[in-house]
Specification:
CATH topology of the largest domain: Aspartate Aminotransferase, domain 2
CATH class of the largest domain: Alpha Beta
Largest sheet: 7 strands, mixed
Radius of gyration: 22 Å
Strand content: 15-25%
Number of helices: 13
Distance between the termini: 56 Å
Helix content: 25-40%
Number of domains: 2
Length: 439
């Protein structure tokens, strides 16, 4: 066998996800707290926590040490067996979750945790249909791609094959892309709930296993629901015997100012799916928190499926350490969130900046046509250059990383929880200047 030449870092054999032909992917080689550094040593404020997941910040010492310690003990245990650190993390998760959720089924990624929740719901309910929202993102496997309300992801997954059993309903959103004409939050809640009940009745309640939704939109645009909406969603699910599953892959573990986004709404779901922040993204880990009735069913009836790396001990050790870090860091989110929102609101001096929305350390900045109020560029129906992506590129060139929402007529702002007010001022100032430069 001939000796191969080493591959230069600029010519990586690794294919980037979400890559755009003709563009180069940034190589990030170091990180510390809110900051990351590229191959040339350039510094950036990481204001999307990469993919809304490095919640504790980069190079957190407690999490790093927990991983190193676990590596020296045992590195892998079958997901069909018990393990001490896996048990410890499961118990800690149920301690911080909404009161009714007392069992955990571990998984590997957000997509796979949502897949697992679907399998569990359909088994427990003996029904096939799952309700999800338009303008949502739940993953990029076939089942979760079908659940996703974002056309860019869903159509890419379903280009050659599609899964059945997913029905969409309209989200309770206002803003430039709202499907409703409400003038007040009360009207919006009523219109959205009336619409949801209409979908349930015409789908056939007995055919519906579960309703899956985020409490604060993730990459769909950090939308919050009007007051009272989720209380009435819970009532509808109880009325028609539908399991309520909250996708907390992004909103879990402090992102919205409490352990779970559900708790910011006073909501007690039947299941919560989680991933990303459970380990601060230091190791892949995900899962489903389930209520007592579902947990009892799974233990008594057995589980015929599983995932090789679900509940990996190294990842679980990272999770235990991350939860310890969040006990203090969530307080920082609550303390700094009003300042973050206030800084972002000042961007409205640009006539192209529309709605600013979100909760905690999860926000979206929407860009509109000042004359019509419509999205400034809508890739769902338009071709050509998207100026919102130019704003993101300009900000990156000036040392701050932001990300596009879905659809990308909005910019997502989701910094690590260790971010301070100076970091926020710097990042928003760079974004302000980038908007000036592009528009």
């Amino acid at each position: 066998m001939s000796e191969q030449e080493p591959i230069a870092s600029a010519e990586s054999a690794a294919i980037s996800h979400w890559n755009t032909p003709g563009t180069e992917s940034m190589s990030l080689d170091e990180g510390d707290g809110v900051r990351v550094y590229d191959a040339a040593g350039n510094e950036y404020l990481d204001f999307t926590s990469q993919l809304y997941c490095v919640n504790a910040g980069h190079s957190n010492e407690r999490i790093n040490e927990a991983i190193k310690s676990q590596v020296d003990r045992i590195q892998y245990v079958s997901s069909a067996k018990d393990n001490d650190v896996r048990t410890e993390l499961a118990n800690q998760l149920t301690n911080v979750a909404p009161n009714s959720l007392n069992d955990v089924f571990f998984s590997i990624s957000g997509s796979e945790s949502n897949e697992a929740a679907l399998q569990i719901a359909r088994e427990v309910q003996d029904a096939s249909t799952v309700l999800t929202r338009w303008r949502s993102y739940h993953g990029a496997t076939y089942a979760t791609g079908g659940m996703t309300g974002d056309p860019e992801t869903r159509l890419a997954v379903e280009d050659h094959a599609a899964t059945t059993g997913s029905t969409k309903f309209l989200p309770p959103f206002d803003g430039a892309d709202s499907p409703f004409d409400a003038r007040t939050s009360d009207q919006l809640a009523k219109q959205a709930i009336d619409h949801l009940e209409y979908v349930i009745l015409n789908q056939g309640p007995d055919s519906i296993a579960a309703l899956v939704t985020e409490v604060v939109g993730g990459s769909s645009g950090a939308f919050t629901a009007p007051p009272g909406y989720f209380e009435r969603v819970r009532e509808l699910c109880d009325k028609y015997d539908i399991l309520l599953i909250i996708d907390e892959v992004i909103t879990g573990f402090g992102r919205c100012g409490d352990w779970f986004g559900s708790q910011t709404e006073g909501l007690d779901p039947d299941m919560i799916t989680f991933a990303k922040g459970v380990t601060s993204a230091y190791a892949p880990l995900a899962g489903v928190l389930v209520n007592d009735e579902i947990g009892t069913h799974l233990r008594e009836e057995g589980i015929d499926v599983g995932q090789t790396f679900a509940g990996n001990p190294i990842a679980c050790a990272a999770g235990v350490a991350a939860l310890q870090e969040y006990e203090d860091l969530i307080g920082n989110v609550c303390q700094r969130a009003p300042f973050l929102r206030g800084q972002l609101e000042e961007l409205k001096h640009h006539d192209v900046v529309g709605d600013i929305r979100g909760r905690g350390f999860l926000y979206a900045v929407e860009f509109i046509d000042p004359e019509t109020g419509d999205p400034v560029f809508d890739p769902r129906v338009e071709e050509g250059n998207n100026p919102v992506k130019d704003v993101i590129s300009e900000a990156s060139e000036n040392g701050v990383l932001f990300g596009p929402g879905r659809p990308p007529f909005q910019i997502m702002v989701a910094p690590p929880f260790c971010t301070d007010e100076t970091d926020i001022e710097t990042a928003v100032s760079v974004l302000d200047e980038a908007i000036d430069e592009v528009f």
